[in-house]
Write a structure and sequence with these properties.
The chain has 4 helices and no strands. It has helices spanning about 15-25, 30-50, 50-65, 65-74.
């Protein structure tokens, strides 16, 4: 694991309490639980974004098949 870097932020008290409860229940440090939560959030966001090549292929498809798509939409 790389070196940790400090940062400052704010969060909803209920969210912080929930993370603290998870840390206590699992016998882990709060910062480890917070790190896991942030990594999971990033993974979900990265999976939601279509890759550039996928979007380019989609746009090309729209151009090539515009007439077909419009007739099917009627």
């Amino acid at each position: 694991m790389s070196a940790l870097r400090k940062f400052s932020s704010q969060a909803d008290p209920e969210v912080l309490e929930g993370l603290q409860e998870v840390a206590a229940r699992e016998g882990r440090q709060f910062q480890a639980v917070l790190g896991d939560a942030m990594r999971e959030y990033l993974n979900q966001k990265r999976q939601q974004s279509p890759r550039r090549n996928v979007m380019e292929a989609f746009q090309e498809s729209l151009k090539e098949r515009d007439e077909l798509y419009r007739s099917l939409a009627k």
